[in-house]
Amino acid sequence: MSQPDTARLLIACDDQPGIVAAVAGVLAQHGANIISLDQHSTDAAGGRFFQRTVIHLDGLAAARPALEASIREVADRFGMEWSLHDTSRRKRVAIFVSKYDHCLMELLWRQQRGQLDIDVTMVVSNHPDLAEAVRGFGVPFIHIPAGDKAAMEARQLELLQGNVDLVVLARYMQILTDDFIERIGAPVINIHHSFLPAFIGANPYARAKERGVKLIGATAHYATADLDEGPIIEQDVTRVTHSESAAELQSRGADVERLVLARAVQWHAEDRVIVHGRSTVIL
Amino acid sequence: MSQPDTARLLIACDDQPGIVAAVAGVLAQHGANIISLDQHSTDAAGGRFFQRTVIHLDGLAAARPALEASIREVADRFGMEWSLHDTSRRKRVAIFVSKYDHCLMELLWRQQRGQLDIDVTMVVSNHPDLAEAVRGFGVPFIHIPAGDKAAMEARQLELLQGNVDLVVLARYMQILTDDFIERIGAPVINIHHSFLPAFIGANPYARAKERGVKLIGATAHYATADLDEGPIIEQDVTRVTHSESAAELQSRGADVERLVLARAVQWHAEDRVIVHGRSTVIL
Amino acid sequence: MSQPDTARLLIACDDQPGIVAAVAGVLAQHGANIISLDQHSTDAAGGRFFQRTVIHLDGLAAARPALEASIREVADRFGMEWSLHDTSRRKRVAIFVSKYDHCLMELLWRQQRGQLDIDVTMVVSNHPDLAEAVRGFGVPFIHIPAGDKAAMEARQLELLQGNVDLVVLARYMQILTDDFIERIGAPVINIHHSFLPAFIGANPYARAKERGVKLIGATAHYATADLDEGPIIEQDVTRVTHSESAAELQSRGADVERLVLARAVQWHAEDRVIVHGRSTVIL
Amino acid sequence: MSQPDTARLLIACDDQPGIVAAVAGVLAQHGANIISLDQHSTDAAGGRFFQRTVIHLDGLAAARPALEASIREVADRFGMEWSLHDTSRRKRVAIFVSKYDHCLMELLWRQQRGQLDIDVTMVVSNHPDLAEAVRGFGVPFIHIPAGDKAAMEARQLELLQGNVDLVVLARYMQILTDDFIERIGAPVINIHHSFLPAFIGANPYARAKERGVKLIGATAHYATADLDEGPIIEQDVTRVTHSESAAELQSRGADVERLVLARAVQWHAEDRVIVHGRSTVIL
């Protein structure tokens, strides 16, 4: 969670000897203490290297420019992509929702209880139903009715651009255009109500019932142009039996959805998720 | 498990009032005590009704003809399909295997320990590799090399027809023809190394790795002409992370496969699985 | 869930031949259709027998007296305890809470969404903190400050006696006297924040951290004089690692607590839980 | 698993700035590539620090003395405990067993399949029953009948001292004396057939049945003088119901035991387990 004078350094580059030592050396030289360090190489030899380092540095704000300059030097040498995140700056999040409230409420509730390190700056919906519930948490609720797609997305982009660091689709039952996803300027996390890649597409619970599966799942993933194909962040399942109707499967699944989405948003908020091709590394 | 003078009565019919009373009445009239009774209706109104009743009746063998005559009468009245299974007659099982031994060994081992109420009467393989391991359990091992498909299946049918009550495909890496499945004259249980319907088909672990899923699963199902589409008996999953290679996923998955297959075979052996369309009811 | 003209019949007696047939016969004779029937015998021979039968009977209210008379006749013959619950009469529930809101909110929220078939008729607390949150659901909140134990319990009994069918202790951090539990006149469900019987008593999360356990659990049970020894209704666990602090274990555990308590209350509401000595049978 | 020219470096010391950099610097200076690095600090400030680093170094055997000298220098500066493990040297393991074979067979079987990176150099038992099964794996079986405790332990120590790196109690139903555990000269892993600290002591399944728990567990831990109090390495549970007898709970539990023990032994074999007081850190 957010702590004063604490930052998270993410790096990604082709695997090669000396990366850990070089980065740790720069941090030590600036007096930064390593609180935790996690890394992952995709292959024993010749793969991609990822590292997340949480550091503590007294007077972080003042020391940051010099530290960044040194990191940049190392990054250039190793061909790294990198980013440094001050933990005291919480991510600004917009939540998109339609009529189902369970995922939305779980996020608002956890934030209120101090369990989720984000700022929910707005909730956007194509239905007015949840206005009162959302405003009860002190969060703005903006109703943009479905209609002309282009006009609708234009209004949404006005709200989002420059104002948010993350968009969460909390069972938002509208399809987003590729163009829209690209122009938001922030990552988008979606919750899909099945264990992907099983039951890609619509009505997964009805299809799960028909197919007689013994486990019901949910998948949180980054939204991409191809909606159900984005990199998976988290998944979970719960056991069901033949005696449960499609409606009961939906109710059981809703409990999985809200926990899976909450974990995915939390990990993203803590800069623990790195996208690697079609998959993710969770550090 | 098998008990003297104990039988399992399975019935299936369209749901209608009075079924439970009629069946229980017949059983009481013949002096049979109900040890357990499980039933399931697919809908509150107008669906399909399934019931599994375990009964104890002193002198079952002698009393059976009269009991069956009475059951037949009730069954005709309600339009029931039914079957009565003496628990002292264990199902005769043939296991088909290729080179992977983990599912095979799990079944042989559980049977030897008295945890699995079946008689494994033969193991059939297209490879000779596992002959010694199988014969060490006192079970015949028959090697039928892959080659001309028709000739191979003809030899297999000679072995199976009339000799087995169940065929288990314990990671048997050969495709069975529709005709073969129909002519065996016994149900066939297959273990698929994924959480169906995700990753239908070949190489599910490689595809799971590529897709970055967070859970690895296995599915035991009845084999039908459309191999990965048969009614699902049991499924389970285990959690994995980005740090596991495709080979490690395979190893983790193998542990799930053997437990899922063992449970499915056990439930089938106890007459607990009823097929209903594309799904199953487990009573 | 509640349905018109639907009732649940619970029976318990010493196991003996003919019970199922006798009960099913009475139901059939009154025109009641069996929607579902679950039974359990504690031993193959000579144990205790439990049965839960859900029935549909047109004009239940009018037909009930005659049906009950017939059931009473059978019950006397077999020495049965029995009860008949009209599903349209939802149980009236009082929730006791202190300052932790997660279990309380889960119950109120599920009830509001139609997922929990109870009427929460009051929330009683020794702290005023949660008044606004509770009243936002349209539920009365009564603040009875801790103080003289006898006076406090006397006020609580005034509220409860005759007014509730169930009391739920949703992390209520006060000890109840034996006398109080007896005089409430309704069952009491408590949620304990550990996998009982591990970590009986106070501060289970701190002790779990110290002991280095790898799973954190929660237990919902009926409260008895010996608080953590009552019959267990439901338990579950979640995996944790050495990297989580005692505070994080508490947060992780809170997610388990609310799901476990919600399931236990739901099963009780559906008359699915029968107490048998120190344990329960869930039908 | 074991790889040529690969080693695992474990360190533990009081937390302080610069540890990661110092260690990474030494490794880089000797040309060792970091394959993976995991670390853990018990507290944000002033706790204990643990790190496991897997390195690859061409010509490890020849380079090792110089590398160790440099590590020793850093270790002295930071007050570190440390050890360097060549992955090509597999741990020599003795398995102690009585009559239950499920945990023993699981270990032998996994080793044979190449899933468990250990050398089982002997199986020691107080019963002769499993001799043939063990020798079938090409592993020596030594039968030391129970009798005079001191004489029995003396014979066992003769076998173990200097010959093994790990002792695994795979459901060994004899109590070990404190003196014996101390004199073995190798760590001892025990599998306890319950979710510790619930049901410490004998007959946990019977007591679990009596108590009506809804989950059955197993715990693998290092054996200490106080047998069921040693540091926990791994735990897991499986869901059970009222309908399962104590014997069935035992059978269900056996499946959990063998998986939990196999995971614990594997993690120990990979030098991933560090004892910290009464608990463990798994890196």
TrEMBL record, chains A, B, C, D:
Q: Which GO terms describe its molecular function?
A: formyltetrahydrofolate deformylase activity
Biological process (GO), any one? 'de novo' IMP biosynthetic process
Q: In which pathway does it act?
A: Purine metabolism; IMP biosynthesis via de novo pathway; formate from 10-formyl-5,6,7,8-tetrahydrofolate: step 1/1
Instruction: Please name the top-level EC class of this enzyme.
Output: hydrolase
Catalytic activity as recorded in UniProt: (6R)-10-formyltetrahydrofolate + H2O = (6S)-5,6,7,8-tetrahydrofolate + formate + H(+)
List UniProt keywords, sorted A-Z. Answer: Hydrolase, One-carbon metabolism, Purine biosynthesis
Question: What EC number is given for this enzyme?
Answer: 3.5.1.10
- Active-site positions on this chain: D228
- Cite the InterPro entries for this sequence: ACT-like_dom_sf, ACT_dom, Formyl-FH4-Hydrolase_C, Formyl_transf_N, Formyl_transf_N_sf, PurU, PurU_ACT
> Which Pfam family, an example, fits this chain?
Formyl_trans_N
Q: Report domain ACT positions.
A: 8-89
What family does the Swiss-Prot or TrEMBL record give for this protein? Belongs to the PurU family.
Function according to Swiss-Prot or TrEMBL: Catalyzes the hydrolysis of 10-formyltetrahydrofolate (formyl-FH4) to formate and tetrahydrofolate (FH4).
Name the NCBIfam families for this protein: PRK06027.1, PurU
The molecule here is called Formyltetrahydrofolate deformylase
Q: Which organism is it from?
A: Microbacterium ginsengiterrae
